[in-house]
């Protein structure tokens, strides 16, 4: 099932979110407009704003202030992308040159700061302290996740728990915040809010696990970035850790060296070792477990079109090739 079909029940609302995004990013500073327009118009799945809308749609009618919060969540995500690409020295995202490649690192960092601060301006306008608490906490934890990931670079000895902690902080936390917001702004019960938050956390975890699989097995044209980016940066992802634990001595030494040294010299051999050890299937299996738990968390909620879309989205997160 395609992502656009999954989001069909909120198609009009997603267009409204795009309108809010474009209006809210305007600045009198020309460079801010150029960089912000480039990153916003470069595509992307718009998953996080869709999660706000879909989770709200489970509990009631989607209102204009939901569009505002959906845009806020996308701005937080966009700011992290701008900063991430500088830290990771990435050259391609979503099939296009990264903003830092075109405009320079300084512009990307500073415009990322602008997008962050604009997000907080917008969330204040909603005048809901609970909303601000959720988004402020999520933003802080995402930053912690970025630092944890930095500390793990070139470390082939981290545990699976260390790896999972990074993706819970860096990726899944914003998914969780998006789905929790949908429940909060519709005044769902505490139990239902927590169920929706668990769905988001599980979905975000599954999503990142598959991203790590695709980095070693996808097609660059499909995934929108260069294959092996994680290896090039010396990131110890779960497929690599599993293959290193379960491979023969030559494979273990190969993968350890790739993580500790970074670079793409041994990419073909590393990807072959990852396949031969069953690492990709193992991580896909974990992602499927997370997606199943995500669906179970919201099984009791009203069976709206938006609820079905959330179930479909969990299945898509595991089956996708991009």
UniProtKB/TrEMBL annotation:
<dbReference type="GO" id="GO:0106350">
    <property type="term" value="F:all-trans-octaprenyl-diphosphate synthase activity"/>
</dbReference>
<dbReference type="InterPro" id="IPR000092">
    <property type="entry name" value="Polyprenyl_synt"/>
</dbReference>
<dbReference type="GO" id="GO:0046872">
    <property type="term" value="F:metal ion binding"/>
</dbReference>
<dbReference type="InterPro" id="IPR033749">
    <property type="entry name" value="Polyprenyl_synt_CS"/>
</dbReference>
<comment type="similarity">
    <text>Belongs to the FPP/GGPP synthase family.</text>
</comment>
<dbReference type="Pfam" id="PF00348">
    <property type="entry name" value="polyprenyl_synt"/>
</dbReference>
<keyword id="KW-0460">Magnesium</keyword>
<dbReference type="InterPro" id="IPR008949">
    <property type="entry name" value="Isoprenoid_synthase_dom_sf"/>
</dbReference>
<protein>
    <recommendedName>
        <fullName>Octaprenyl diphosphate synthase</fullName>
        <ecNumber>2.5.1.90</ecNumber>
    </recommendedName>
</protein>
<comment type="function">
    <text>Supplies octaprenyl diphosphate, the precursor for the side chain of the isoprenoid quinones ubiquinone and menaquinone.</text>
</comment>
<dbReference type="GO" id="GO:0008299">
    <property type="term" value="P:isoprenoid biosynthetic process"/>
</dbReference>
<keyword id="KW-0479">Metal-binding</keyword>
<keyword id="KW-0808">Transferase</keyword>
């Amino acid at each position: 099932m395609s992502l656009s079909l999954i989001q069909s029940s909120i198609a009009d609302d997603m267009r409204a979110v795009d309108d809010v995004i474009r209006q809210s990013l305007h600045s009198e500073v020309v460079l801010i407009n150029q960089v912000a327009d480039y990153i916003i118009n470069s595509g992307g799945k718009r998953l996080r704003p869709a999660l706000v809308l879909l989770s709200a749609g489970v509990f009631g009618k989607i209102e204009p202030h939901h569009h505002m919060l959906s845009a806020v969540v996308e701005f937080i995500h966009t700011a992290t992308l701008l900063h991430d690409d500088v830290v990771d020295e990435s050259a391609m995202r979503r099939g296009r040159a990264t903003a830092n490649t075109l405009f320079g690192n300084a512009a990307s960092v500073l415009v990322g700061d602008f997008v962050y601060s604009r997000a907080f301006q917008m969330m204040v306008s909603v005048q809901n302290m609970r909303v601000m608490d959720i988004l402020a906490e999520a933003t802080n934890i995402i930053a912690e996740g970025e630092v944890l990931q930095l500390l793990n670079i070139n470390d082939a000895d981290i545990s699976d728990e260390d790896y999972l902690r990074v993706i819970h902080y860096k990726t899944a936390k914003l998914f969780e915040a998006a789905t929790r917001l949908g429940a909060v702004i519709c005044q769902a019960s505490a139990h239902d809010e927590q169920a929706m938050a668990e769905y988001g956390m599980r979905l975000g975890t599954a999503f990142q696990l598959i991203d790590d699989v695709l980095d070693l097995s996808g097609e660059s044209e499909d995934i929108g970035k260069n294959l092996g980016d994680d290896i090039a940066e010396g990131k110890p992802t779960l497929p690599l850790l599993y293959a290193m634990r379960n491979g023969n001595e030559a494979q273990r030494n190969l993968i350890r060296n790739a993580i500790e040294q970074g670079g793409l010299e041994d990419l073909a051999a590393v990807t072959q070792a990852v396949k031969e050890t069953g690492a990709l299937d193992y991580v896909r299996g974990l992602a499927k477990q997370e997606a199943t738990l995500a669906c179970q968390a919201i099984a009791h909620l009203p069976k709206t079109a938006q609820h079905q879309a959330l179930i479909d989205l969990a299945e898509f997160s595991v089956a996708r090739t991009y």
